[in-house]
Amino acid sequence: MTRPVAPPNAPAEQPMAEVLRRYTAVVRKRLWVIVAFLAVGVTASVLITLQRPKIYEATATVVVDPEAPKVNKDDQVVEIGAGTYTYMRDYYNTQLEVMTSFPLARATVVAGEGGRFYDHLAPREDYPDLSDDKRIDAAAENLLDALKADQHKDSRVIAIRVRDKDADIAQALANQHVASYIAYVKAKRATGTGQASELLAAQLDDASKALKTSEDKMNVFKSAHGLFTQSFDDKQNTLVAELQRYSAALADARVKTTELAALKVRAEALANEDVLTSPIFGLGTPSGVVDELKAEYARAQQKYAEVDATFGPKSEEHIAAQQKVEQLHVALAGEVKRIIREIDERYAAAVGAESGFSGLVEASRAKAADLDKVYADYAPLVRDQKNAEDQYKEVSERLSASQRELQNSIINVEPHEQARDAEQVLPRMELNVALAAIVSLLLGLGVAFLLEQMDRTLKGADGVEQLVGSPVLGIIPIVDTMTGDTPEAAAARDLFVFNHPTSQAAECCRSIRTNIMFSAAERPMKTITVSSARPREGKTTTTIYLGTIMAQSGQRVLMIDTDLRRPRLHSSLGVAKERGLTSLLVGEATYDDVIKSTEVPNLFVLPCGPRPPNPAELLLTNRFRVVLSELSARFDRVLLDSPPLLAVTDAAVLAKLSDGVVLVGQSENTSVDDLAAAGRQIRDVEAPILGVIVNTVDISNRRYGYKYQYYYGYGGYGDSKAEAG
């Protein structure tokens, strides 16, 4: 089965506004389905709710503290984890479990005077085969089903709620269950405190013995290692400080040695440089001394040059000046040697210091290693003694607190608020109706969209080109005429374009006429077959519209009713049908006898004539080809109103004989599968398809977007006569 696909140029994603618009259109179209589901759902909800029995709920509250109040405010018994969020959460969850447990429910049922509670919760007539004891158990189980306990948020108040068909029973059960819980807590406290004191006394004796043993072991160890005069921690701290001090000094010495070694290598490399420009002076001699020597040398050199020029090389002045230059040069060379010697001495001193500090560090490390061996035996003794002391202290404090608690009759639970008048909680009419409305609305929407998804009819011109393999020539909107299937209504609809030349439909048809002309610009387009996939899809009306628009443009147009089975052109145009195409084919009439003029200028019609018993065979005759050829010579355009393609084979025969085929589909009526099949049938006979016209399109419907909206208001823009001219 051929399914519609999106046009090639369709965007991969639609804008949100477009999606919402389409959804809104579906809702408007299928609103009756949604309203029907909503009405049925709400009505059913009201009826069912009215038939259900009334249930009442009573609530009693109780305050629960994690610990009972202390008689002595100075008493502090701290349990591990007490006060943390996890501890509090677990504690209150435990109390909620106790309140909704079977033993407590049974105690509440038994507490009713004269069996009031269990006779109500488990009537004898409902449990005739059970003993009273078993019936009490059944009543307790039923109470658990109607019982709920929950903690108020961020508080220590717990609410106990009981539901029952009897409001008074619900109230009494809630109050009695609180009383049963308080009695349970009192009994548990009295029993638990006495047992805890006996257990703690035995634990305290064991803790005392363990503490004495750990202290004896520690004294023996301290005596053996001289730890009575100085504690182990003091020795360890002294040794650590010494090792840190030596290690820091060693690190500084190594840095110094490394720096001087690099300086020594640099100085040796610069030893043979020119003393006047050598960078070695920057390694050890203050810049002032070297700069002064260099300045004096420069002056001596200048004076030497002047003496040489004035007195000559043999003079005493020349000799003295030369000696002065040489002495200063020797002084600079001596400064180089002194710098190298000074760097060597500093390097040797740094190496010696590094070696000394290294020995001190190794000695300190050896002492630390010996002390670590002692600590390996000392640390377990310290831990054992500390644990023994902590254990003894904890057990002693708990025993004291437990003994004081024996004298304390106050518990950590107290009533907060008794249950008063029970309130009706079920059935909840407003909630049930609201939920039913929501569910019904969702179901209605789901069915509406499902129906829309299953609707295989055309929705405007979207996807038509992909279905048929030919372009969309245009659309024809719904025309505002009288409704019904009467001849008068059909005639008003068929002549709408002629009677309303400035209407939107007329403008659409002019656009279609132009598209048809452009689609066959390279070949003559004299004979055009207009057909549809199924009957009652508007092909005859479309034929009349096209003929009218073509005739208004000055062309002589002939419409031939080739639907020899169900002809309709004659009734729409008001011409006689007794003589027509079939009469012409069998030689019983001439062209002038059967071609009728219409009230539309330049538009003529050839009715069907008497219905033949074999329409397909008649259209296959050579006589029909000759007649069609002669009619094409007489008129500018010949439009063949053919039968539906999928109903009979006549349309395929006509398509083969014509210059082009126009396929008509009706929006919201023509099946996309039928339209695709009709396109295949035309291609199978190798007939040219000019394109598809989609009629009865509701261009005011927002579901088709705004691509047809330009037709609004455009119909009155020009004059129909001007258009025709």
Overall SS class: alpha/beta
Report the sheet-strand fraction.
5-15%
Average of per-residue pLDDT values: 80
Order of strands in the sheet with most strands: 6-13-12-7-11-8-10-9
Residue windows where pLDDT falls under 50 for at least 5 positions: 1-13, 71-81, 709-725
- The residue fraction in helices comes out at 55-70%
What structural keywords apply?
10% strand; eight-stranded mixed β-sheet; disordered N terminus; flat; alpha/beta; five-stranded antiparallel β-sheet; disordered C terminus; 725 residues
Structure commentary:
There is one protein chain. The chain has 725 residues and is α/β, with parallel strands linked by helices. Helix content is 59%, strand content 10%. It is built from 25 helices and 13 strands. The strands form 2 sheets. Strands 6-13-12-7-11-8-10-9 form an 8-stranded mixed beta sheet, with helices on both faces. Strands 1, 2, 3, 4 and 5 form a 5-stranded antiparallel beta sheet that branches. Strand 12, helix 24 and strand 13 form a beta-alpha-beta unit. Helix 4 packs across helix 6, helix 8 runs antiparallel to helix 11 and helix 10 packs antiparallel against helix 11. It is flat. It starts with 15 loop residues before the first helix and ends with a helix. 29% of the residues are buried.
In brief, what are we looking at here?
This protein is α/β, with parallel strands linked by helices and 725 residues long. Helix content is 59%, strand content 10%.
